[in-house]
Amino acid sequence: MRRILEGASPRARVLLAALGALLLAAPFLVDSYVLSVLIIVLFFAYVGQAWNLMLGFAGQLSLGHALFVGIGAYASAALFVHFHLPPWAGVFAAVALAVLAGSVIGYLGFRFSIRGAYFALLTIAFAEFTGIAVAHVDWLGGSGGLFLPVSNRAHDDLANLRGSPTMFYYVILTLTAGALALCSWLLNSRLGLYWKAIREDQEAAEALGVPLFRCKMIAVAISSGLSGIGGVWYAFYYNNLFPETTFGTSHSIELILATVVGGVGTLFGPILGAFVLTPLGEVMTALTEGIGIDGVKPFFWGLAVAAIVLFRPSGLWPWLYRLLALGNGTRGGPR
Amino acid sequence: MTGMTRRQWLKATAGGAAATLPLLRIARAQTSGPLRVGVILPRSGVLAGIGQDLYRGVELAGPILRDLGYPEMEIMEGDTESNVQTARAVAERLIEAGAHVLVGAFDSGQTTAIAQVAEQKGIPLIINIAAAPQITEQGYRFVFRNFPTAPTILSNAFQQQKEIFARVGAAPKTVVFMHVNDTFGTAMAGGIGAVMPKFDMPYRIVETIAYDPRARDLSIEVAKAKAAGADALLMVSRLNDAILITRELIKQRWTPQAVLSMGPGWYEDQYIKTLGKYSDGPMSFVPWYDPKKPLSRKLEEAHARAYPGTNLNTNQVFTFEALLIAADAYRRAGTTDPGALAEAIRTTHITDNVSIGPGIMFNEKGQNDGLVDATIQNVGGKLVVVAPEAAAVADPIWPMPPYDAR
Q1: Where are any strands of DSSP class E within B212-300?
Q2: Per the count of CB atoms within 10 A, which of A292, B122, B227, B366 is most buried?
Q3: pLDDT at position B5, please?
Q4: Which residue from B55, B138, B186 is facing A149, i.e. has the nearest CB?
Q5: Per the omega criterion (within 30 degrees of 0), is the bond before B294 cis?
Q6: Is the ipTM of this complex over 0.95?
Q7: Cβ atoms within 10 Å of A82's Cβ, excluding its own
Q8: Nearest CB to B139 within list A151, A285, A324
Q9: How close is the nearest chain B Cα to the Cα of A310, in Å?
Q10: Shortest distance, CA A287 to any CA of chain B (angstroms)
């Protein structure tokens, strides 16, 4: 917490405390529809944080992050369906497999100097062919989908992640807070400084003795592992997985959009981006409901997102940070 | 830097939020009415075309059900944007806005997400289309499906092929199985491989050809199929490739005895419009309507008036029936209480319906297991039911008229 608040003005501390309190109390304050929107917001904030670690901190662009979420989702769901292994146990397999996939991609990319757009293509390719492979594995439900058994319970069963939306809300809130704390700690560590050096100028970093390969591999491993945990939550919340939608590129784009809009490379960018994009979609739905033209909402939503990216190319968070004077002047820029 | 002071920004934000909240509330206030039915369909995104076609069923239902004396319903529209997350949020929103019943949602993943919300909230969900068998295997008490499951669709297809062979007194001895190599095509190929042996079909598959549904040229695939010397083509395709394959059949002067399609493409309006007289002949095995039922005729007439030049199809038929089920339950329950409505839906017994089979009634799992698919044949630009015999309005044309003699 101390690290998160480092460099923050008193106003920022008050705002953060207020936001935290509001989020903790949200299930008691809002109706189930708003709660379901908040759940989506937090999911995108969490996965956005994981993706941000790879691009924003370490400078490695992944456009196939649905791969890691999907692997985590499928691994935990399949273990639950076939062996009744609770998600808290399945999460280890989920993380291990996601990290393994990330490490393979990272090894290929970094060992053979595949950079930038080509590295991004590599991540897309892995996500796509994993989706195709899963569609052919009956044990994983094939293209017909993997369904988790659902039942209405009188009480929340946290051990098996079976229960009410409120329970899922608190789980994803905890995950998001945890990811924020972890990223904050990493960002301020020696490793975080190495990542920043690599992101800014890889050759210069290498010349100064930064172990490029190791640092980048760690970034990919942590990012894919966190995404895998997100996948476990995703599988148990939605209870059905289809390879095309789980591993598809459109899902990958969906997962990173909040971070892009909020501010790549910042700690609070993914959270702010998620809090802007998802509610913006819901407001657009309300605004366009009476128009009666199919697809008008996504059209205007797309325009709004394009406008944000156009007018705030560094993301909303750096702009907001300066506008509200959230720093105390001891640090260079928004975190 | 920003062109805006902090104070201005805070005022603008507060103003925006204040303006937005009433908008959301207005949307809710507008949804008061008799029986509020939340119709959730993928009306934008990758499934937009299908979603909009499905909505035609909703537009047709209003006047017909009113004529039949069913009580008034208010439709609350929801767009899943072809996305599971949105589907779930839309279901929550419509329920919060006062929906008494939900209808949707075509895609099995999106439908599953909606079903969970419906079950948690105790609001009945009537599934118009979604074939994944697992949906009604979860022990849900508020989820009802009036659409056959994927295994039923496949089994019906083979049963009806045998019925047709018996009626025409002929059967192919060999077929070439061509299928798209996307997830749908691959799943169907797997399903056919598993189900076909149970039916002791008179033909054997001499060649299986998988191809890319986005291919621009299928001449090699068709030449390969022709060279196999098979009597008929067994197809799992989509629209564009169905058109390409037909053009190649004409070009390569090969008219198989039959084209037996177990997927979309061959019966779609665009196929018929594009190929004209060359679209005649293929048989498709699909969940369909019984043209002999009185309500089907009403629906056909209304459809012809509203959408001239197109054929009534599966999407519209089953969406129409979902609303019929809701209206019927409301009439019998006499209340909009969701629990009472669910109970009424559970005891549905509608025989004056449109789909093929004894009518609409649900088993203990909430599945209408009496539904029967149809075999439809393209004849003169129309889609004619040729099997099962109880619903058939014409005899199957066997073999297909040669392309070069049309």
Answers
A1: 232-236, 258-261, 283-286
A2: B366
A3: 54
A4: B138
A5: no
A6: no
A7: 11
A8: A151
A9: 14
A10: 7
Kind of pairing, strands B73-79 and B35-41?
A: parallel
CB proximity list for B183: less than 8 A, separation 6 or greater: A132, A135, A143, A243, A244
Q: Low-confidence residues of chain B, pLDDT below 50?
A: 1-4, 9-10, 13-32
Distance CA B218, CA B241 (A): 8
Residue A138 belongs to a domain: yes
A29 Cβ under 8 Å from any chain B Cβ: no
Sheet holding B232-236, edge to edge: B204-211, B174-180, B232-236, B258-261, B283-286, B374-379, B382-387
- Helix (H) / strand (E) element for B25: namely helix B6-29
Angle formed by the axes of helices A87-111 and A66-83, to 10°? 150
In order of A136, B138, B155, B158, the CA distances from B149 in angstroms are 20, 14, 10, 15
Out of A37, A138, A150, the one facing B89 most closely (by C-beta) is: A37
pLDDT at A293: 78
Of A36, A143, A283, the CB nearest to B89: A36
B contact test, residue of A14, A30, A32, A33 with most B CBs within 10 A:
A33
Q: Is A9 an 8 Å CB contact of chain B?
A: no
CATH number for B151-286+373-405 (one of 3.30.70.1790, 3.40.50.2300, 2.40.160.20, 3.90.550.10): it is 3.40.50.2300
**φ and ψ at residue A173, rounded to 5 degrees:** -65, -45
Chain position carrying tokens 């075309």: B49
In chain A, the number of structural domains is 1
B339: which 2 tokens?
Answer: 């629990």
- Do domains B31-148+289-371 and B151-286+373-405 share one topology? The answer is yes
pTM, entire model: 0.85
Q: How far apart are CA A308 and CA A302, in angstroms?
A: 10
List Cα–Cα distances, A81 to A78, A84, A145, A150, in angstroms: 5, 6, 12, 11
Instruction: Tell whether the model's pLDDT for residue A305 goes beyond 60.
Output: yes
CATH number of B31-148+289-371: 3.40.50.2300
pLDDT for B21: 42
Residue pLDDT, tens place only, A244-258: 889 999 999 999 999
Q: Does residue A57 lie within any of the structural domains?
A: yes
Which pLDDT score, from 0 to 100, does residue A334 have?
A: 61
- Quote the domain boundaries for residue A169: 30-249
- Helices within chain A (DSSP H only): 2-5, 10-29, 32-52, 66-83, 87-111, 116-135, 165-188, 190-200, 202-207, 212-238, 243-247, 249-262, 269-288, 296-311, 316-323
Domain edges within chain B: 31-148+289-371, 151-286+373-405
Q: How many CB atoms lie within 10 A of CB A255?
A: 26
